[in-house]
Design a protein that fits this description.
single chain, about 400 residues, alpha/beta, Rossmann fold, Four Helix Bundle (Hemerythrin (Met), subunit A), about 45% helix, globular
């Protein structure tokens, strides 16, 4: 599966800071110090109802991680999946009376268009669950053969008791885990499971649903968590730098994925840091496919909204914060974009070298985009009231905002 084209990232003088970021597993900030190649895995979309602003906020956050690393002169090995076969996708295809593969292809294509418009840097590897199945099957077989998985009526489940580190990502108690499992794709009430929250690794073929050759597992399709584990281990290996996604993935997805990997390899940790973006709400409720209260990037673009303004709307909120989309949020971003573009359009301006360092400091401090935006606001205000004599300053600001925050002025 191909990703989308990369926008050019301007080179800036000097060097960026190492990133300090909130790690869900430890509950505090950690300083990320990757080697020459930083490794990050971000969980991708299930391709229906793409791309809503909740998606956009998440991928914007991890695009900033890439940009901070690139500014430290590192390379970035970024991997993202697409869950292009799963119950919600199949259910939506049935509801709409269309082929599930066509739905997945259409929504993935739209997602690519939106990511391109928002100047989100693409992953090096963009992998669909279906194309990953040949690599998933041997992992499930291995887990079964080592006693970390068991069969129930033809389905294969992972035993969470097989990983002594289980629970170290979310730190949730059993009651919360069970509730979230039921809410987020699990089946804790199924009789016969060793533990109610044990997740499915391989679903035996169901009538009327797609299935693939599972070798000794029999025909079927993979569970959600093992998909990401197989892709991450194949392309990044154990101990990569950041596992990322929305905060709704903390449990069960990231908790279970880590346990799968620990059991498979005998190594710990799966990722050095677990980083999660907050949720975006509309009319007082989290944007949700099930609720249908979604605002789509493609709809805003069709209405003539500049993608740079959409991105500034996202950047105005700290990535870990839960926040609400309103017309005012967008209007403020449109106005900010206008002020910034007016400021950099002048032939000279106030010196900008200190501003670049302010932006770098803010982003290195747990991706503090509100602080970064406020710094640019101050420079633009000074430009509009007093001007300046530095002929290179507007260009420096324009390049810095593009390189570090992905906003083209």
């Amino acid at each position: 599966m191909h990703a989308w084209p990369a926008s050019e990232v301007p080179a800036l003088p000097g060097k960026g800071r190492d990133l300090r970021i909130h790690d869900t597993a430890t509950g505090g900030r950690v300083t990320l110090d990757p080697g020459p190649v930083a490794r990050i895995y971000v969980c991708g979309i299930t391709p229906y109802d793409a791309t809503h602003l909740g998606h956009a906020a998440t991928y914007n956050a991890f695009d900033l991680v890439q940009r901070v690393w690139l500014d430290t002169k590192r390379q970035v090995h970024y991997v993202q999946n697409v869950t292009d076969v799963d119950d919600p996708l199949l259910e939506r295809a049935v509801r709409d009376g269309i082929d599930w593969t066509g739905l997945a292809e259409r929504e993935t294509s739209l997602f690519r268009e939106d990511m391109t418009a928002l100047r989100i840097l693409p992953p090096r590897h963009f992998i669909g669950a279906v194309e990953a199945i040949p690599g998933i099957v041997p992992l499930v077989e291995r887990l079964r053969d080592m006693g970390a998985a068991y069969e129930l009526d033809g389905d294969i489940y992972f035993s969470v008791e097989s990983d002594r580190h289980f629970g170290e990502v979310s730190h949730y108690d059993a009651e919360v885990m069970r509730a979230l499992s039921a809410e987020r794709g699990g089946d804790p009430d199924r009789p016969g499971k060793k533990n109610p929250i044990d997740p499915m690794l391989w679903m035996a073929a169901r009538e009327g649903e797609p299935s693939w050759d599972g070798g000794s597992l029999g025909p079927g399709r993979p569970g959600w968590h093992i998909e990401c584990v197989a892709i991450a281990l194949d392309h990044l290996g154990m101990g990569f730098d950041v596992q990322g996604g929305g905060s709704d993935l903390i449990f069960p997805h990231h908790e279970m994925g880590a346990s799968h990997a620990h059991a498979l390899t005998g190594e710990h940790p799966f990722a050095k840091a677990y980083v999660h973006a907050g949720m975006v709400a509309l009319h007082g409720q989290k944007m949700s496919k099930s609720k249908g209260n979604l605002v789509f990037v493609s709809t805003l673009r069709r209405e003539g909204v500049d993608p740079a303004a959409i991105r500034l709307s996202l950047l105005a909120h700290h990535y870990r914060a839960d926040w609400e989309w309103t017309d005012q949020v967008l209007q403020e971003a449109v106005e900010r974009l206008g002020r910034w573009r007016a400021a950099v359009s002048r032939p000279d301006g106030p010196p900008a070298d200190a501003l670049v360092e302010e932006i770098r400091d803010a982003l290195a401090d747990d991706l503090d985009t509100p602080a970064a935006l406020a710094a640019v606001d101050r420079w633009a205000a000074l430009q509009s009231t007093e001007g300046g004599t530095d002929e290179g300053a507007p260009g420096v600001v324009s390049r810095a905002v593009d390189a570090l925050m992905g906003v083209a002025l």
